Amino acid sequence: MRVISGSARGRILEPVPGKDTRPTTDKVKESVFNILQFRLYDAAMLDLFAGTGQMGIEALSRGAARAVFVDRAPKAISVIRKNIAAARVEDRAEVLQMTYQQALQKLQGQKFDILFLDPPYGGELLNSALNAVESFDILSADGIIICESSVEDTVMCPDTFSVYRTYQYGTIRLTALCRKEENE
């Protein structure tokens, strides 16, 4: 079991049973929220590959207006729903059990200030998701995308985004992306 911090401090989050879901480490999670600290208030967050839902729940506990949680695994969806209820944020949370492509298509026309992408490491899933995010145009004008990946993974930045910053924590890399400025 994991404890979430912020204003939800002391609440226990359920883990997803089995070894298919890799939770974000506490050190990386704190780094993400240090990056996002001035962007959270009243923000709309999309947590793709949500796992336990810990990142979206933490965002809600720190002032985000709403969060959409996406995962295709039934076990993860069950855990996300339990964790949202335990954190008492049901009124600001939406849970979608579907692939990231289906979710992005469903959410097309909406804008999100924060996107958190933490797919399974390795392979091309992260880059495929970034290209889909670009094509469905769901990032707000001043929004940010935070990607969690292995340091061995190559993050391919789509044309309309630029890498704002990268951070490394042992074998984990965080890549922050934002929209390109018009003069870039």
Please describe what this structure looks like:
- With 184 residues, the protein is an alpha/beta fold.
- Helices cover 29% and strands 30% of the residues.
- The chain is built from five helices and nine strands, in the order ββαβαβαβαβαβββ.
- It has helices spanning 26-36, 54-61, 74-87, 100-107, 125-136, and strands at 2-3, 12-13, 44-48, 66-71, 93-97, 112-117, 139-150, 161-169, 172-179.
- The strands form two sheets. It has a seven-stranded mixed sheet, with helices on both faces.
- Helix 2 links the parallel strand 3 and strand 4.
- It is globular and about 40 Å long.
Question: What's this, in brief?
Answer:
The protein is an alpha/beta fold.
What characteristic shape results from the CA principal axes?
A: globular
Estimate the strand proportion. Answer: 25-35%
Number of helices: 5
Class from helix and strand fractions: alpha/beta
Rg, Å, rounded: 15 Å
Give the % helix.
25-40%
Let me know the largest β-sheet.
7 strands, mixed
- Strand order in the sheet with the most strands: 5-4-3-6-7-9-8
- The low-confidence runs, each spanning 5 or more residues with pLDDT under 50, are 1-10
The tally of beta strands, per DSSP, is: 9
Terminal CA distance reads 45 Å
The average pLDDT score comes to: 88
Oligomer: single chain
| Series of H and E elements | EEHEHEHEHEHEEE
